[in-house]
């Protein structure tokens, strides 16, 4: 009886400590999510709130029928893949460079990790100035290097605008990969690497046979997290091009913001709900695939 009473009291005590956090998260996170989800199935327009009829899947049908949708979907895919692959490669190389101890390594780590503390919107504003066609530093450097003969309209050319925003996002996201991979590299046992070196394994062999398999889980989870954040991060594009020119840098989240600015909250909520579903399915299949790889 005493054990049972103690167990109940302990459970109630733990619940009491967690109750404020549960209430806070539920009120400010899950309740707005439920409200936004039900708006996705209504004709909810900011300019006429007297009538918000239930339209079911009508908002989703309008989104799929919009001729802009294929362009936005393609841009989103290019945005995510074009950002994640260079971030992974460069971040991995940076982590390898910082793995070995050398003088002032802490200073270099601080300088490399600093961009992650900067706001994404501020990064977009900085790169918007850097890619400016008239007085941007990018054109100035390329012209001095002899790579171009005349300034390029980076943010006004439909073919160059996506390149510019991806470059900005790569610069911003490399830091996250470097932080995560460096932390994983520091957990690799030195004894295993020394034993492999004694057995005659070279640097490349140790990298692909020992280091990468050892930190494979961290790499997979880092790619997953960064993919989700990139899919959901409109601030850099919004600050640099606002989805232009001619919608060539519009991704799904900037498209959602545009509908919100127009007052079409029903359509914007439908896009947001669709994004949640797509990311949930992507995470499920990604984790299943990683689990199968780890079991081999």
Automatic annotation (TrEMBL):
Q: Which GO terms describe its biological process?
A: transmembrane transport
What membrane topology does the annotation report for this chain? Multi-pass membrane protein
Localization (cell): Cell membrane
Keyword Lipid biosynthesis set for record: no
**Membrane-spanning residues:** 12-31, 77-99, 111-131, 160-185, 206-229, 265-289
Per the UniProt record, the source organism is Promicromonospora sukumoe
Query: Sorted alphabetically, which Pfam families does this protein's record hold?
Result: BPD_transp_1
Keyword flag RNA-binding: no
Key words, A-Z: Cell membrane, Membrane, Sugar transport, Transmembrane, Transmembrane helix, Transport
Protein family per UniProt:
Belongs to the binding-protein-dependent transport system permease family.
The protein's name: Multiple sugar transport system permease protein
Residues annotated as domain ABC transmembrane type-1: 73-286
Q: Name any GO cellular component annotation.
A: plasma membrane
